[in-house]
Amino acid sequence: MSAPEEVMDMLNKLNPDAVLNLVGMTNVDFCESYPNEAYVGNVKTLENVASWIRNAKKSVQLIHISTDQVYDGQGPHAEDKVDLKNYYAFSKYAGELVAGMAGGLIIRTNFFGKSKCENRASLTDWLFSNLTENNPIQVFEDVLFSPLSMPTLCEMLSLAIEKKLVGVYNLGARDGLSKADFAYKFALSLRLNCNIMARCSSDEVNFIKTYRPKDMRLDVQRFERAAGVTLPSLVVEIDRATKEYQK
Q1: What pTM did the predictor assign?
Q2: 111-112 vs 177-178, strand pairing mode
Q3: Beta strand 111-112 with 148-149: parallel, antiparallel or unpaired?
Q4: How many CB atoms lie within 10 A of CB 167?
Q5: Of the candidates 33, 55, 119, 150, which lies 20 to 30 Å from 236 by C-alpha distance?
Q6: Cα–Cα distance for residue pair 163/60, rounded to 1 Å
Q7: Rounded CA gap, 87 and 42, in Å?
Q8: Peptide bond preceding 76: is omega within 30 degrees of 0, i.e. cis?
Q9: Residues 7-22: what's their mean pLDDT?
């Protein structure tokens, strides 16, 4: 996706009416250590797609998936309260600017659920794996977020494409939880062993190398108004996701 000629050839063959960009470098520590690679993954690839769209002989929708890490400080965060504190966030925001110049839809989100990729585990995959194997884990009580389950996210993206939304939108649950509370509610829903989880502050661990925001809760009112929907609470989303792990 970083080679312009390959992207142009692929899109010319597909000739899509809409492009949903899910390409990205998402490892925060890697992005901080290797900013050039982060730029290629989060900006350059999108520049190639945007260039094809600008030269297309028809109208093409661009939907770009961004991140809730472009915010910092106390949430819930409205779309205009950008505060970039690490290179991952910077590179994702730079990608947003590219998508915006191409008339795209930028979705800032976070999501969870049973991963469809064998080599990539989601937060709930990690929780489920460790708790079913009785591996003790630490869960952060000082990190807040408001993600959606993958099925709901897909439904909302389909709706946004149908309504041809343009611009920047937060897309998440209507409310948020700490990652610790999220973990306990997920575990209780599946009747997993909660006793092997220990609440802690993210400041207490030594495996976090790069600064990360502690409150990534999203104000989703703009999306709700534009799409004509009421987004679910995070507890409802946890219940929806647990059904995937019961199969």
Answers
A1: 0.95
A2: unpaired
A3: parallel
A4: 12
A5: 119
A6: 14
A7: 11
A8: yes
A9: 94
Distance of alpha carbon 203 from alpha carbon 196, whole angstroms: 20
Q: Are 181 and 139 in contact (CB under 8 A)?
A: no
Q: Rounded to whole angstroms, how far apart are CA atoms 73 and 80?
A: 13
Q: Which residues pair with 168 in a beta bridge?
A: 106
Q: For the chain, which residues make up each domain, given as ranges?
A: 4-245
Residue 117 clears pLDDT 90, i.e. is over it: no
Pick from 109, 123, 197, 202: nearest CA to 160: 109
Residue 116: what pLDDT? 85
Residue at 179: amino acid letter? K
86-115 pLDDT, tens per residue? 999 999 999 999 999 999 999 999 999 999
On whether the CB atoms of residues 172 and 109 are closer than 8 A, the answer is yes
pLDDT in tens, 165-220: 999 999 999 999 999 999 999 999 999 999 999 999 999 998 899 999 999 999 99
Listed residue (216, 197, 201, 182) closest to 110, CA to CA? 216
Which distant-in-sequence residues (6+ apart) come within 8 Å of 187 by Cβ? 127, 131, 193, 194, 197
- For 26-78, the pLDDT digits (tens) are 999 999 999 999 999 999 999 999 999 998 888 999 999 999 999 999 999 99
Kindly report the number of other CB atoms within 10 A of residue 13's CB atom: 8
Six-digit token string for 208: 């976090």
Please give the single-letter amino acid code of residue 46.
Answer: L
CA–CA dist 72, 216 (Å, integer): 7
Q: What tokens appear for 37 in the block?
A: 């690679």
Q: Considering all CA atoms of the chain, what is the largest pairwise distance in Å, rounded to the nearest integer?
A: 59
Tokens of 123: 């937060």
How many CB atoms neighbour CB 165 within 10 A? 21
